[in-house]
Structure formats: structure tokens, C-alpha cells
Design brief:
Number of helices: 15
Structural class: alpha/beta
Order of helices and strands: HHHHHHHHHHHEEEHHEHEEEH
Strand order of the largest sheet: 5-4-3-6-7
Distance between the termini: 70 Å
Strand content: 5-15%
Number of strands: 7
Shape: elongated
């Protein structure tokens, strides 16, 4: 075996293969941690040290794959490999640098969670298509090199496995066919991903498929996408492994190079590939740095904006305001007016069936509702979902309080952008407390008792019931 044959391409294949292996290990470790946390939050908390380790390993894995692609772009120009690799590197640079721009320019959450910010899986699918195209181009070129070498040798030739073959490029054509099928699979995956994302979005163009927006179908769709993505990953690993193995074991290529005095053009890095590689690797490092240094402050600032521009646990601008006149209709068809509840402490809980923190606090809210019903209090749950969705959800749970369906409420309830959020109104209709995020029974109880207590004429409603 002549180790000088395509040394950079071979090194790139090995780097990429190592990167995929490390990435798979990171995915497995992260999945195990999430599963343990789901089963036992305490045990999951003890494994929190794994998060920075897995994050660092993921950066190393991505770096190995990018270096691998960069080295493969050095393949002789006649192979037509470089343009595919440059596309992969350019997309990687875009995906890595966009969050850095969002954090550095202090753009709103929508910039990170909008179409470009949520395009991660789609960009990965496109990169998979490009990678398969690159490997396919390499295999087709290698087939032509094999045939030229066979024509020059004029002797019986053998495949990498040692069997006599009539077509010296057959092994490479087979690999090229596998890569082409991978291109088709990744393209189909990308199209299916776009369709599912569209059907699950507020812009669903097919009214009859509106149930696609329901949580269960969203979870099933996400699970199907995950399984399909794993299959594609395994096929990528198989393609990279097969090409690497064929290059390493091709005795004909070494013999042909020796007979022809190295007739295959030498490998070299093109300027476009070097620029794209530098941007991709630099973007990867910048992204990791930004996630650790800039992102925490950015998230804190924008979370405060979402919950009413106040620190969690601090004073809300709504506290001290008089509750507006609101007429609500429950899912059972009853009409509820806030003005009719004068003299009672009213608890308004804004929630949704698809919101995990909302669902998690329901038992505590139900316990509160049973107690305060004996004390002249009222608990009302408010969701902006359709009545049928809410009714089917409530039917399987103990929710002994009024459930309202509706939206477009008057101020200060018109700008709720984070749920669950719970308001406590005293007997005079003054908002005495606002709880943002999931709460426990103890927190609910303290807020209710504080709202029930008389308010001094000179005193402002006092926050501080949050834990």
C-alpha cells in the first residue's frame, strides 16, 4: 500500500469519522441524562456536571467533522469534490455565527427562534445532502482513476476484497450509488421536515389538518423526525466508513501510482475552501464562547421583557392596578363577570394544555381551589385554546374550578406572553400579586392569604410572596 496516495483526503475521512463517533457519544450521554432526570429529578441534578462536559465534547466533535471536510476539499480539482465541501463549510459558518450576531447585537428572541434561528435541523439535512454529494463525486472520480490504472497495467486486477472483477471501477460505482441514495433520503427528509413544520405552525394552510398543532401530534412528529435523523446519521457513517475503507485497501491505486510515476494530480487546498473552513471553525469557537459569556445576560434581559420587564420574584407593574371589567364564558357555557365577584378574592390562572409547567401546577391549584371555595374565594383558569381541546383535557383531570376559553382580554391581561401566570385580586378588585411561571401550593396559599388581608389606605400592595 502506498500511503502517499491522497493523504489529505484520507486524513479528512478519518477526522470526519472520528467526529461523528464523538457526536454520537454526546447524543447518547445527553439522552441518558435527560432520561435519568425525567425518572428522578434528584439524580438528574447530581449529573448536572455532565452538561458542560458534553457541550465541550460536542464542540470538539463538530470541529473534527469540519476539519475533515476541509481536508477532503484538497482532493484533486478534477474530482469535483471541493464545491460540495465549501457548501458544507459555508452553511456551518452561517449556523454558528447567526446566534453570535443575535447575542452581540442584542436582537429580540424572535431573531433566535424565528425561521433562521429554528433552521438548525434543516441546515443539518442540507449539509447531509452536500456531504453525500461530495462522497459520491469522490467515488465516481475514483472509479475513473481505477479504470485508467487498470488500462495502464494490462493485467488481472482485484477489488479491495481481493476478488477478480471485470469492471475495475465497480466497487466505486457501488459506493457512488449508495451515496446517491443517501442524497435522495436526506432530500426527502428535508422536504418532510418543511411540511411538518408548516402544518404545525400558525400558518397551516390546510384547515382540515389543524390538529397537527396539537401537542400529542407535535410530539409524535418530533419523535418520527428524530428516528429518521438517526437512520440518516447511520447511513452517513456507513458511507464515510465505506469510502475510507475502499481507499485504504485499494492495492490497484498504489500500483497504478507507482507505475505511472504519481500520475494523479497532487492534492492542494483552494483559497475558497480555506476561507470557508476558517469561517466555519472560527464561527464554531465564537458560538461556544458566546453561549458561555454573552448568552446568559442576553437571556436574562429578554426574559424580563417577556414577563413584564421585571426580575423574576420582583414587583410587577400590574400590582396595585384595578382589575378591568371582564365577562368570561366557561367551557360549560356559564357566564362569569368579574364585577359580580366583588368582595371575594379571585385567582386568575392563565394556562394552556400544551404547557408543561401549567400542567404540573394543576394539582396544587386544585388543592387551593377546594380550600378557598370554603373561604369565599374563586379560582378561574383561562386558556386561549378552543373549547373542545380544553374540555377533553379537563375531562381526565381533577380541576375543581371554573375553566374559561378566550383571548383578547383588556389591560393588563392583554400583553401576557409567558404562561403560566397567576393573578390574585382582592375583594375590591385590586391586583395584589402576579406569579409568573409554575408555582407550588405553598406559594399559591401565601399569595391568597396576602390578597385576603385588608390593605392599609396608605400602603401599596406588597409583593414578596414568591419563594
Amino acid at each position: 500500500m502506498n500511503d502517499r496516495f491522497l493523504p489529505l483526503t484520507r486524513r479528512g475521512l478519518r477526522c470526519f469519522r472520528s467526529g461523528i463517533g464523538l457526536a454520537a457519544l454526546c447524543m447518547l450521554t445527553g439522552g441518558i441524562q435527560q432520561y435519568v432526570t425525567l425518572l428522578s429529578p434528584g439524580a438528574g441534578l447530581s449529573l448536572r456536571w455532565l452538561q458542560p462536559v458534553v457541550a465541550s465534547m460536542s464542540v470538539v466533535a463538530s470541529g473534527l467533522m469540519l476539519v475533515g471536510v476541509l481536508f477532503m476539499t484538497a482532493c484533486p480539482a478534477e474530482a469535483g469534490v471541493a464545491r460540495w465541501g465549501i457548501g458544507i463549510l459555508a452553511l456551518s459558518a452561517l449556523a454558528s455565527l447567526w446566534p453570535v450576531v443575535v447575542y452581540a447585537a442584542d436582537l429580540p428572541f424572535g431573531a433566535l427562534t424565528g425561521p433562521l434561528g429554528n433552521a438548525g435541523i434543516g441546515l443539518t439535512a442540507i449539509q447531509t445532502v452536500l456531504l453525500a454529494g461530495m462522497l459520491g463525486a469522490l467515488c465516481r472520480w475514483m472509479a475513473s482513476v481505477e479504470r485508467r490504472a487498470a488500462a495502464c497495467s494490462g493485467s488481472a486486477l482485484h477489488s479491495p476484497e481481493g476478488a477478480i472483477e471485470t469492471d475495475p471501477g465497480a466497487v466505486w460505482e457501488t459506493l457512488a450509488g449508495s451515496c446517491q441514495r443517501l442524497v435522495h433520503g436526506a432530500t426527502t427528509f428535508l422536504v418532510a421536515l418543511v411540511i411538518v413544520a408548516l402544518l404545525a405552525s400558525p400558518f397551516n394552510p390546510v384547515p382540515s389538518l389543524q390538529p397537527m398543532r396539537q401537542p400529542l401530534l407535535a410530539i409524535l412528529g418530533g419523535f418520527a423526525v428524530l428516528l429518521w435523523g438517526i437512520v440518516l446519521l447511520l447511513r452517513v457513517v456507513g458511507a464515510v466508513w465505506g469510502v475510507d475503507r475502499a481507499i485504504r485497501r485499494s492495492a490497484r491505486l498504489a500500483a497504478g501510482e507507482e507505475r505511472n510515476g504519481g500520475g494523479v494530480a497532487a492534492e492542494r487546498f483552494g483559497s475558497a475552501g480555506m476561507v470557508a473552513g476558517a469561517l466555519a471553525l472560527g464561527g464554531l469557537v465564537a458560538n461556544h464562547w458566546a453561549e458561555q459569556v454573552i448568552a446568559p445576560g442576553w437571556v436574562d434581559r429578554h426574559i424580563k421583557e417577556i414577563v413584564g420587564n421585571r426580575p423574576l420574584g420582583g414587583r410587577s407593574a400590574a400590582i396595585g392596578q384595578a382589575a378591568p371589567a371582564m365577562t368570561m364564558k366557561t367551557i360549560d357555557g356559564e357566564t362569569v363577570r368579574l364585577e359580580d365577584l366583588a368582595g371575594k378574592v379571585v385567582v386568575l390562572n392563565f394556562w394552556a394544555t400544551w404547557c408543561p409547567p401549567c400542567v404540573a401546577e394543576i394539582p396544587d391549584l386544585a388543592r387551593l381551589a377546594k380550600e378557598v371555595n370554603q373561604e369565599g374565594g374563586v379560582v378561574i383558569g383561562i386558556s386561549d385554546e378552543d373549547v373542545d381541546t380544553i374540555r377533553s383535557f379537563v375531562a381526565s383531570r381533577d380541576m375543581p374550578y371554573a375553566i374559561v376559553a378566550g383571548s383578547d382580554w383588556p389591560a393588563p391581561f392583554e400583553s401576557i406572553r409567558a404562561i403560566p401566570v397567576t393573578y390574585f385580586l382582592d375583594g375590591a378588585g385590586t391586583i395584589r400579586e402576579e406569579l409568573v411561571g409554575g408555582s407550588s401550593y405553598e406559594v399559591f396559599r401565601r399569595a391568597f392569604d396576602a390578597a385576603k388581608a385588608p390593605l392599609s389606605p396608605l400602603a401599596d400592595p406588597a409583593p414578596g410572596v414568591l419563594p
